[in-house]
Amino acid sequence: MAKGLSEAEDAVAMGVASVTADMPERVRAGIVEGSDTAFRYGVHMVAGAVRVLGSLAAVAGIRHLCAVVSGCR
């Protein structure tokens, strides 16, 4: 069972809901919705990290430019 859960986690990370045809409709719908929510949360976390890194790079670039121009304040 642990191996199956690990494979399901990998599928969710790729944005795929791991449902089977023999599951009841309500269970499948819950799994699909939960997988979608988990995937979107992961995407937002990555996007947030990229924004923070971009902001830090911009600040570093501006400071470097000011040092080259000498006297930006």
Task: Report on this structure.
- With 73 residues, the chain is an all-alpha fold.
- It has one domain (2-69).
- 78% of the residues lie in helices and 0% in strands.
- It has helices at residues 2-13, 25-69.
- The radius of gyration is 22 Å and the shape is rod-shaped.
- 1% of the residues are buried.
- The mean pLDDT is 80.
- Anisotropy-based shape: rod-shaped
Helical fraction: over 70%
How many β-strand stretches?
Answer: 0
Q: What structural class should be given to the helix and strand makeup? A: mainly alpha
Terminal CA distance: 61 Å
Compute the CA-based radius of gyration.
Answer: 22 Å
Poorly predicted runs: none
Mean pLDDT: 80
Please tally the helical runs, counting DSSP H or I stretches of 4 or more residues: 2
- Beta-strand percentage range: under 5%
As for the number of domains, it is 1
**In sequence order, what are the helices and strands, one letter per element?**
HH
Largest sheet data = none
The gist of it:
This protein is an all-alpha fold. It contains 2 helices and no strands.
